[in-house]
Amino acid sequence: MSMLASDHTRLFQRLARLWQQLYPYKHRMIQAMFIPQYYKLQAGLDQAVTDEQAWRHWLLAGHKREIALNPLFDAEYYRQVWADKEPRIASEPSAFMHWLKHGLQERIIPTVLFDEKFYLHAYPDVVACGMWSFEHFIRFGVNERRWPNGLFSSGRYMEKNNDNLNGLAPYYHFLMYGDDCGFNGDTHNFDPREFGMPSWRDLYRLAVDKNREFFDDRIQCGVLAEVLERAARIEPLINKPAVAARVLHIPPFMGQQTGTYAAAKKARLALRRPHYTNVVCIPHCRVGGAARVAGLFCQALAKIFPDEPTLLILTDLSVFARPDWFPDNIEIFDLSAIVDGLSAAHKQTVLMDVLRGTTPERIVNINSRLCWDTYMVFGQQLSQWSRLFAYFFCYDINPQGHKVGYPIEFFAPSYKFMSGYFFDNQALVDELEYRYLLKNSSEHKSKAVWTPIESDSTLCLHAQKLQKKSEVSSRWRAFWAGRLDRQKRYDIVVEIANMMPELDIWTWGHAVLDGGFDTKNLPPNMKFFGTFESFDDLPLHDCDFWLYTSEWDGLPTMLLETGVRGIATVASRVGGTADVINEETGWPVDDFLDPRSYVMAIRQMMGDPGACLAKAGALRDLIAARHSMNHYATEIEAALK
């Protein structure tokens, strides 16, 4: 071991600094490629030898003797690749040194165990950063436990071998010690060598090699590629990219070991029935308008199909805050907990498996992102045995002022395979039909159905109280409740309070989508009370009128709740709010981004208590007549049947 003598230390340090200054890129690549544990095994060095000593050994002798310093550098494979470019490798001391001098510049990947096409498709951030895929993997990806190809899952491997990694990345550990522990650490006592088969590592290399050779030569070109392209129009999974379908599935690397299979199996076993007549997909059930409508829709299904089973699937989040909104006989299935941790594509596959396996007659999507994404991939196939429906409420507006959201993103692409769309307001129906030239279409898939609201004839009109305000001197009090998100414009409420010190404004709410609003430094005539569970939990006897300031909206259930109770309302006229608030039923504000317009409407209302009584009564009569559960169920039944 004289080569490791201490008198060489300063020389190596100077050489290393000089190399780093002259060739910074090559220096980084060597550092990333050098795996001390692997090199010690290949060179026959004792593991007690320090990493620095092993590095010196490679510099002085190892590279000349073709001792590999990384399991992902295959000298023979590199020579074969380079042979296609030149008849022989130039006079370099080793294949690795030739790769440093020439192969790096040509971006030649020196191993069959890394699939560049797979890696770039599976990780778009690598494409975005512009780094060479192989460099990214050896410097970052292998330690970030990213898949090097379609056969190896670092997560699956770590489940069984996490305690034995000894600081190695899972992929390196497998390539170095796979024969000792077996893939995933559990081969059911099966050792392929006992049966004259290659080792696990050899099987793996063979699988990767054949996988690449087969798909590159036969599926990506020629007649078979044309056949697959036509077949993909019927079944998209046939022609999915490598991350999903162009993967060679052989035990024990894939199959029952995969998380997707396990999740799909767990989902099937969790269902109480093999078949459901109706399946409704929602993202979650928080206290919000979309969840409230989902509950009412399921109640309508129970009324229309009293003897038919309905499955409600939570797809995006395990939150079910209001079970009282849903009928008792509905089965609630939390798919989000089962698919947690899977990629987006694999979540879609599991949901597709559930939908395909339960063979529902109807599938209804109410604001589920996962269901929409699944529709986009499998909608044409799902529509062959199930009728597909979706509920739209309103678009969103991004900070740049552009309309975005589910109606904008999914209405047109899904139109060809959907059986129908439900809307809670007519304004959005008209806008989408105008946008996509469907006004005179023979197909009428869009239907506005009025959200039902309970009407109690014993409720007194709140506006009657306002008549007494003209007789006694007292302050007026407005109520506001909603999400403290950009859409609802809580900032406008604060401006109104500043401009009308004679008015008290009480508010409730919480942030859901955005960062929220500072409710600590409010004007003295404004109070914030936090969240509330039910509309009836609010002290409505202290409310003189309702203030609604949304910048865009569908038909908010909040306005139905206030209107059916006879509460006078000042509201922005946007989207579906115009379906209930007009000059006969309240005080609509057309210039809804200007707080002065609200102030003008409020002062007009305060100056005419008699008009408050008349308009609040008209609003209540409109809602009671049009927004009944019987009417709603009839409209839903006509569309579904």
Give a short account of the largest sheet. 7 strands, parallel
Backbone structural class? alpha/beta
Task: Give the beta-strand count.
Answer: 15
Oligomer: single chain
Return the average pLDDT rounded to an integer: 82
N-to-C span = 85 Å
Number of helices: 26
Strand content: 5-15%
Which stretches of 5+ consecutive residues score pLDDT under 50? 1-7, 182-197, 241-257
Strand order of the largest sheet: 3-2-1-4-5-8-9
Helix content: 40-55%
What global shape is seen?
elongated
Radius of gyration: 33 Å
Describe this structure in words.
This protein is of the alpha/beta class and 641 residues long. It is built from 26 helices and 15 strands. The strands form three sheets. A seven-stranded parallel beta sheet has the order 3-2-1-4-5-8-9, with helices on both faces. Strands 12-11-10-13-14-15 form a six-stranded parallel beta sheet, with helices on both faces. Strand 13 (545-548), helix 23 (557-564) and strand 14 (569-572) form a beta-alpha-beta unit. Helix 18 runs parallel beside helix 19 and helix 22 (490-499) crosses helix 24 (595-606). The longest helix has 20 residues, at 200-219. The radius of gyration is 33 Å and the shape is elongated. The termini are far apart.
